Amino acid sequence: MQEFLWLLTLSLVALLAVIFVAVIRQAAMPAAAAVPARSGRYRQPLFWGLIIVGVAVTYGTLVPWPYSPDPRTTDTPLRVNAISEQWSWSVDHTELPLNKPIVFFVTSRDVNHGFGLYDSDRRLLTQVQAMPGYVNKVHYTFTKPGQYRVLCLEYCGLIHHDMIAELTVKP
Amino acid sequence: MASNRTISQTVRPVVGFAVRLTMALSIVVFLLMMLLGLIMRMVQGSLLDIPPDLFYQIMTAHGTGMVGTAGLAGAAIMWHFLNRYVRPSVSVYWLFLAFFLTGVVLILAGIFAGGFAGAWTFLYPLPARSGAVWSVHAAFSFIAGLLLVGVGFLLFYLDAARAIVGRYRNLSNALGWPTLFGSEQADTPPPAIVASSAVLIINTIALVVGAVILAITAVNLYVPSLTINPLLAKNFIYFFGHVFINATIYMAVIAVYEIIPVYTGRPWKSSRLLIAGWSATLVMALAVYPHHLFQDAVMPGWMLVTGQILSFASGIPVIVITTYALLSYLHRSEIRWDLTSALLTLGVFGWAGGVIPAIIDGMIVVNKVMHNTLWVPGHFHFYLLLGMVAMALGFATWLAQGEKPGTAMTLSHKLALGGFLLGGLGVVLTFLYSGKESVPRRWAVHVPEWTAPDQLGSVFAAVVVAATIVIAIQYMSRCARSS
Ligand code: HEM
Ligand SMILES: [Cu+2]
Ligand SMILES: [Cu+2]
């Protein structure tokens, strides 16, 4: 996912740069007749193109609803409580099952923290905020056994960068 | 059409002086803050070793300092061009500067004397609950400083509103609504007035909301029993923060509207499209902030959906319209490039370019794996450093050139411009790359696997600093000579 987004971003920025360079290279030339009229010709397609892309992307990324449980299974998820506090996590199950949907109930005893679930390659899998007074839920199903980590993803003061918990997923 | 008539023949010399002074101040602070940024990047890259408390103080100073200075430079740009059409008060402008500078003193004292390191977003209840790292007095100094800066901006916008209404009778005329809705408008507002009106409305609202949450935070420091719902506080803070930081770009782009036509010989018109774009922005800028709260799963679903849709949609009005208009005005305009026109054009590129990774992160499914990684500083440095700051520097060189096109670009101009562009792109792309690699943002310590892009980013940052120094020196020496 992240690789794709990175390449998408690079391509779109490059496209924008190419358009700027193309215009800049012509900018010093004398005007051809009726330039403004000619330059208007991309306006309509650009407008409608953006609308169509917008509608399609909105639909494609909101259906199914991104916060809902894993649609591939109807098992009742295992509930795991994660409570944050400056500057540590307490997670009530640190050995987690494979291929079973899990719902993390995340909260905080003091300030805002962020529950960031990382795999052993340091790739961020999912996240949710840990807030005082609220319980945020995040669903995840582990499909690979191994060592996982929770890193703090909301700035919470001096030891924010060392607020890490270890999780193990057993085959 | 008698529209867009300026009153520049009556622009008071003191206006020019105040604006040049503000820009000098802004450039110096931008530079100092860039140095702090360079230090942070080097620390993350293990090229420099400082304790985490100092890192987070620097992070707080850099964030607050950059956002505040972007606001200051934006205000100077807006005020400069407002003076072409209407008569804002010079005394209020000095008062604004006085509030701003007093606030800065309190902010710096809170951070570097008191050790406050709660970040520029002062996310409640962190200021009061630092784990005994800083005192409530340090937090109070910082919060009170922000409040003073906010009051200064509020005065600035209220006076701008008074001046605009003085000529256009009401803000709907100044937003160009008669033109938009088809009636003949005798005194069509120029883009500078349309943009200023939209900005002053949204930022006044944002500043009031910001002042409310700042005041509650300040009281909570000394009266812990007086609390506020942390989720509500978060909504207030991101609403304020989102609008304020975006407004800095909206103000800076006025320089593009007003200066580029001098180069192209084609007036930047208040077309219906432009007017509609700014009116749409007025609404969307206020409603889009829930995109900062995608990871608060308890937020109402409709707000999160609105946040995602508006993140995409709010890119279209001003950004697409401004970029498109700029490119068609430039096209075969026989423009003679100088540092000003090049920096302003770069600024629009940076603004539009930065919005690309921002909109991508504005989708909930993406946000799940990008939020609070370095992807985020990646996109906002794109439109702030290569966008907002490039426009502000372009405006400054315009002042230094005596507000007319300058000589063709010298070698030092070309090096400065190229360095700023390449260095800036490098800073931004290394951030985005780290974000793609899931590196968290706001971490003082990076593991060895993360440090390669940090180190490369540091090199690019040094290039940006060097390029900015060249531009700053030229600005200072030209301004000193001319006054
Ligand atoms: C040479 C140029 C710059 C460099 C090297 C730089 C570097 C940095 C670094 C390393 C961070 C912290 C990243 C992290 O979260 O780990 C940061 C944060 C930030 N920067 Fe910059 N920056 C530069 C220019 C700017 C400019 C021009 C602006 C705005 C006008 C800006 C605004 C901010 C803000 C608002 C933050 C967020 C602070 C926070 O997370 O609390 N920066 N910058
Ligand atoms: Cu944290
Ligand atoms: Cu925002």
Compact overview of the structure:
The complex is a heterodimer of chains A (171) and B (483). Chain A is α+β, with helices and mostly antiparallel strands. Helices cover 30% and strands 33% of the residues of chain A.
Helix and strand sequence of chain B: HHHHHHHHHHHHHHHH
Q: Strand-residue fraction of chain A?
A: 25-35%
Query: Termini distance of chain B?
Result: 37 Å
Which spans of chain B have pLDDT < 50 for at least 5 consecutive residues?
Answer: none
Helix content of chain A: 25-40%
| CATH architectural label of chain B | Up-down Bundle
Overall pLDDT level of chain B: 94
What kind of assembly state do the chains in view correspond to? heterodimer
Task: Tell me about the largest β-sheet of chain A.
Answer: 5 strands, mixed
Run of helices and strands of chain A? HHHEEEEEEEEE
Estimate nothing, just give the exact number of structural domains of chain B: 1
**Measured distance between first and last alpha carbons of chain A:** 25 Å
Could you give the count of β-strands of chain B?
Answer: 0
CATH superfamily of chain B: Cytochrome c oxidase-like, subunit I domain
> Helical proportion of chain B?
over 70%
The radius of gyration over CA of chain A amounts to 24 Å
Number of domains of chain A: 2
CATH architecture of the largest domain in chain A: Sandwich
Bound molecules: protoporphyrin IX containing FE, copper (II) ion
